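Retro notes (design track)

What went well: tokenization of the new backbones is finally stable.
What didn't: we kept losing track of which sequence belonged to which structure.
Fix going forward: every design gets posted as structure first, then sequence, in one message. First example under the new rule, 693 residues:
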């Protein structure tokens, strides 16, 4: 995955680099008497040699633009192009050539000029001073060159250029490196170079002083409070100081001027080492294993990667893992910010200071990483961003350490008060729990009383409703037994029919009670199928023909949509047939039960976009507003009464509502007292083949 990220970054960097190269020819840099320092940014011309085989002679012939003399130059190499800004090409295997044209147009201008080039960690940098196609002098620097062999005792490479005449001079610089390729240069007179060097040394001294002071301060803290976080912080501070000392060139200048490999090794190990020790410090300081164990595991994985990268560097594979190390370091710094914010928000105040410190380091380190990856060009800010950010970060982390120690002191001081308050809180919590349990017990008793009341109502209704038909059955059977010798066949048939009706009435009551119990316990199982609701309505109405004739009632089955005016009509719904039959049976039987003699019952069917609607309208007494509020409750006794003394259990509409909703439909009632009732049932349509298509 890191190879893909690296490839994408390199492509982006190269495109930015390529876009920064103009096609125009660079102007000659005029050196005037008033000129003492020149930033050579945007004064260079650049040429990329992907083969790495071009020599200075090849470059000079190519620069003459004479095709007859360029036999040795590869065909894919073009001429110099104007470079806008400083050279920044990320990690590349190409060799880059830079060209600068100089001319003392003012005879009073200085004849001696010093060129300071940055950075030191480029492997091989060679400069050729050329006039009239002749090489006047050659200069060399880079981390493959000993500092002791440099022309000037200075932390950076300095080339001394003598321009004695007013003719045009050209400086050709060849750059080859396995580390991140970025290059910038300044041209000074000797006096201006001394002044600038003194100013830069003062800034470096401030940085080193801050770092040493913070290291000493935390060393004292470590002896007073033995803590892993303090140890990791000291290692991080010391490593940061060493890396800054090496990057600024002071390590090689003052300590290892003869050893090339030491400087290069420290530079190669800098990023993975900082990644490792910063990860260890953050994990310990923010107490991640305790507060965020999953995040702590991620940091342990980063630490393992850092160690593996360090091993790869020691094995000589720095060029393959350098970009990965910088990407991981950047990711870690970015991730620390939200982690610190979250921990600070949770009450651990040093988390906020870590966020501020990391932000400062990210700001400086980001400039360095983006410069190394070639996204931005080298500048003073990107050159010293690491030192500035590191100094701010070390100061803020020292404050965070002090704040953490204060927190530990405060926690110890509050421990006694917390222990004292524990008993008080425990007593309050116990009292609160007792009150809560008392409240729950009261609610439970109220619920049990309600259930007991419902049970008594249920038993009372069952006993009352079953008593009359059972009395009729017993009386008629006794009468038939006593009058058996003298009873006529017509009387026997009449008695048997009355016994059958009473038995059916008892069965109806028991069925309703069992249905309610099944629905309350969740044991109702429905199987949906495509059912013709028109045919089902006919079946229910035919079942009640005797009841309709007994009360001289008329009924109509109407269709509001002409689509269903065909013969026979059909309207398919997706329902359970038995449940749907029971819903229609209850509603139509109610319409018959509460309709006065000689009135009309209307069943209106209509189809809508997603459901079928059945409206059952009677011309009975209607319902009051109070009745409509408890219409679908169990055992509800309404103000309206059956017109012919029919029986009512108060369960039918409750069953209708539960079954309708179980089938995915709805049921409602529209009524005005004195003007009858209209029950509206909406059931989902069955999907036909056309609708599926």
């Amino acid at each position: 995955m890191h190879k893909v990220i690296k490839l994408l970054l390199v492509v982006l960097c190269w495109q930015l680099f390529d876009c920064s190269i103009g096609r125009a020819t660079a102007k000659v840099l005029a050196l005037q008497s008033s000129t003492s320092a020149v930033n050579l940014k945007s004064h260079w011309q650049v040429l990329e040699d992907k083969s790495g085989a071009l020599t200075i002679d090849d470059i000079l012939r190519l620069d003459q633009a004479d095709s007859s003399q360029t036999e040795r130059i590869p065909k894919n190499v073009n001429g110099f192009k104007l470079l806008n800004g400083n050279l920044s090409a990320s990690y590349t295997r190409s060799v880059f050539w830079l060209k600068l044209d100089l001319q003392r147009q003012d005879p009073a201008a200085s004849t001696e000029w010093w060129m300071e080039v940055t950075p030191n960690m480029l492997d091989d940098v060679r400069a050729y001073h050329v006039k009239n196609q002749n090489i006047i002098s050659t200069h060399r620097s880079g981390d493959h060159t000993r500092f002791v062999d440099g022309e000037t005792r200075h932390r950076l490479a300095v080339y001394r250029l003598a321009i004695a005449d007013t003719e045009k001079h050209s400086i050709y610089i060849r750059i080859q490196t396995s580390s991140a390729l970025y290059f910038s240069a300044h041209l000074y007179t000797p006096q201006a170079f001394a002044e600038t060097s003194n100013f830069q040394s003062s800034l470096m001294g401030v940085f080193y002083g801050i770092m040493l002071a913070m290291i000493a301060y935390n060393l004292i803290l470590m002896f007073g409070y033995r803590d892993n976080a303090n140890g990791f912080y000291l290692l991080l501070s010391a490593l940061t100081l060493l890396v800054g000392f090496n990057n600024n060139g002071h390590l090689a200048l003052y300590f290892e001027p003869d050893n090339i490999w030491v400087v290069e090794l420290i530079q190669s190990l800098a990023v993975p080492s900082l990644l490792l020790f910063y990860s260890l410090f953050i994990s310990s300081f923010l107490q991640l294993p305790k507060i965020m164990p999953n995040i702590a595991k991620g940091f342990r994985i980063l630490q393992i990667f850092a160690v593996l990268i360090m091993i790869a560097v020691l094995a000589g594979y720095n060029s393959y893992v350098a970009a990965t190390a910088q990407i991981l370091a950047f990711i870690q710094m970015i991730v620390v910010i939200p982690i610190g914010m979250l921990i600070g928000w949770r009450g651990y105040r040093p988390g906020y200071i870590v966020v501020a410190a990391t932000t400062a380091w990210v700001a400086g380190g980001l400039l360095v990483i983006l410069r190394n990856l070639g996204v931005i060009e080298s500048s003073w800010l990107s050159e010293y961003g690491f030192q500035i950010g590191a100094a701010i970060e070390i100061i803020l982390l020292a404050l965070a350490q002090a704040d953490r120690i204060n927190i530990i002191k405060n926690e110890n001081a509050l421990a006694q008060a917390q222990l004292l308050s524990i008993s008080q809180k425990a007593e309050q919590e116990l009292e609160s729990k007792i009150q809560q349990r008392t409240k729950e017990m009261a609610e439970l008793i109220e619920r049990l009383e309600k259930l007991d009341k419902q049970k008594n109502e249920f038993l009372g209704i069952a006993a009352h409703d079953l008593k009359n038909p059972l009395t009729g059955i017993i009386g008629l059977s006794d009468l038939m037994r006593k009058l058996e010798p003298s009873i006529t066949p017509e009387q026997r048939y009449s008695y048997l029919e009355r016994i059958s009706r009473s038995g059916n009435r008892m069965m109806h009551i028991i069925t309703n009670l069992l249905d309610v119990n099944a629905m309350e316990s969740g044991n109702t199982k429905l199987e949906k199928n495509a059912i013709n609701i028109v045919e089902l309505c006919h079946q229910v109405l035919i079942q009640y023909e005797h009841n309709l004739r007994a009360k001289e009632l008329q009924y109509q089955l109407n269709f509001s949509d002409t689509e269903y005016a065909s013969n026979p009509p059909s309207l398919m719904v997706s329902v359970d047939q038995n449940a749907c039959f029971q819903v229609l049976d209850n509603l139509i039987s109610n319409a018959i039960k509460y309709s006065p003699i000689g009135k009309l019952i209307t069943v209106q069917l209509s189809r809508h976009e997603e459901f079928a609607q059945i409206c059952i309208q009677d011309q009975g007494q209607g319902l009051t507003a109070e009745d409509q509020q408890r219409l679908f409750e169990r055992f509800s006794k309404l103000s309206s009464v059956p017109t012919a003394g029919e029986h009512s259990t108060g369960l039918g509409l409750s069953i209708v509502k539960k079954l309708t909703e179980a089938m995915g439909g709805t049921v409602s009632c529209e009524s005005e007292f004195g003007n009858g009732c209209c029950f509206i049932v909406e059931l989902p349509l069955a999907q036909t083949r056309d609708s599926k298509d």
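Added context from the reviewer: Confidence is low (pLDDT under 50) at residues 1-24, 66-70.
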